[in-house]
Amino acid sequence: AQKVIQVWSTTSRQEGEKLTLDCSYKTSQVLYHLFWYKHLLSGEMVLLIRQMPSTIAIERSGRYSVVFQKSRKSISLVISTLQPDDSGKYFCALWELDNYAQGLTFGLGTRVSVFP
Amino acid sequence: VTLLEQNPRWRLVPRGQAVNLRCILKNSQYPWMSWYQQDLQKQLQWLFTLRSPGDKEVKSLPGADYLATRVTDTELRLQVANMSQGRTLYCTCSGLQVSNERLFFGHGTKLSVL
Q1: Which residue(s) pair with A20 in the sheet?
Q2: Cis previous bond, B8, omega within 30
Q3: Of residues A44, A101, A106, nearest to B44 (C-beta)
Q4: Contacts of A61 (CB under 8 A, 6+ apart)
Q5: Residue A16, class by beta-carbon neighbours within 10 Å (0-12 exposed, 13-18 middle, 19+ buried)?
Q6: What's the CA gap between B61 and B64, in Å, rounded?
Q7: What tens digit of pLDDT does each residue of A64-114 get?
Q8: Which among A92, B17, B30, B97 could disulfide-bond with B93, CB atoms 3.0 to 4.6 Å apart, if both were Cys?
Q9: Residue B99: closest CA among chain A residues belongs to which residue?
Q10: Residues of A with Cβ-Cβ distance to B43 under 8 angstroms
Q11: What mean pLDDT is reported for chain B?
């Protein structure tokens, strides 16, 4: 069963709109972190946001924010005022302390297309 | 600034042949090096984390067998054998901390089966 669930595999918006990408996760652990990565067309994978238990780190300056609902085990990435450069694939990922030696668990990603 | 140099970027692999991948770490601040695979269904999956020179691990997954080696403080290798389906392999690095969580990715090596 998937531990990190991104329901939408693709989505598209027009330039200037706001986009919310949803992610839900399953964990029984107390200490875990969540991440949003963007996979660029060049192949590069870029860390956007890191959500820790009570703090958030915006790793990539821009128009990114999150809506973190811990009780619902949900973290949404919000991108405001979309630009064509925001096109790419966005991955949500989970890190759990007890499984720290096993790396991150990723969702399947959501491909975003932004049209002028 | 690129933290990881990964090569080759793309390789066509004749069925039954093994291929060797290489990843070079450019910043010693992030010494924990790992391999992740992304299969044709686009699932990104952790394979190995090798922390010290001399560390070796093997793993068999659907569609490929892997042997990972941490050669030096700055070099990580991966041998991919018995590959039946294409995939992309990503090298990553992270900092010296209890957690293994803040990852930087290389550009990836895309493998296709001939």
Answers
A1: A78
A2: yes
A3: A106
A4: none
A5: exposed
A6: 6
A7: 999 999 889 999 999 999 999 999 999 999 988 887 777 889 999 999 999
A8: B30
A9: A100
A10: 106, 108
A11: 90
**Cα–Cα distance between B84 and B17 in angstroms, integer?**
10
Looking up tokens 């560390």 gives B55
Of B111, B102, B109, B106, give the one whose Cα is nearest residue B29. B102
pLDDT at A43 over 80: no
A8 CB contacts (<8 Å, ≥6 apart)? A21, A22, A110
- What residues does B24 pair with on adjacent strands? B5, B75
Could you give the CA distance from residue A77 to residue B55 in angstroms, rounded to a whole number?
A: 37
Whether residue B40 lies within 8 A of chain A, CB to CB, comes out as no
Query: Whose CA is closest to A87, among A8, A6, A11, A2?
Result: A11
Written as six digits, the tokens of A80 are 């405001």
Contact by Cβ (8 Å): A112, A37: no
Task: Please choose, from the candidates A27, A20, A6, the residue with its C-alpha nearest in 3D space to the C-alpha of residue A76.
Answer: A20
